[in-house]
Amino acid sequence: HGKYQKYDQQGRLMLEQDFVNGVMQGFSLGYYPSGALKEKYTMKDNEENGPFQEYHENGTLKTEGTYGPVKDGGTAEQGELREYDDAGRLIRIADCKDGTCLSTWKAE
Q1: Which structural domain, as residue segments, surrounds residue 9?
Q2: Which residue, among 5, 43, 8, 40, has the nearest Cα to 26 in the 3D structure?
Q3: Which of 76, 75, 83 has the alpha carbon at shortest distance from 103?
Q4: Number of domains forming the structure of the chain
Q5: Contact (Cβ atoms closer than 8 angstroms) between residue 93 and residue 81
Q6: pTM for this prediction
Q7: pLDDT for 8-44, tens place per residue?
Q8: What CATH number does the domain containing 88 carry?
Q9: Each residue's pLDDT tens digit, 46-71
């Protein structure tokens, strides 16, 4: 039960994860060496399962989407995936099924 935290050799927080009865549940948060949030994944039963966001080091959103179950077990990207440049402009939209993502729109 509780929060797992991992630090680098300089003592900077790199990773935070929530556990319930020894199983990862809730959020997994990754950080850049600067301390800025790098990624936020929704976890269920030790797997990415639900909404996720990845961030550029300047704090702007880089990628957002959803992980869901796949037919052969495990999880992968499912549904709409959005990617942004480091200024926050939408640059790509993709449709994902079982981890295979095909662009449906791309900035010119």
Answers
A1: 2-106
A2: 43
A3: 83
A4: 1
A5: yes
A6: 0.91
A7: 999 999 999 999 999 999 999 999 999 999 999 999 9
A8: 3.90.930.1
A9: 999 999 999 999 999 999 999 999 98
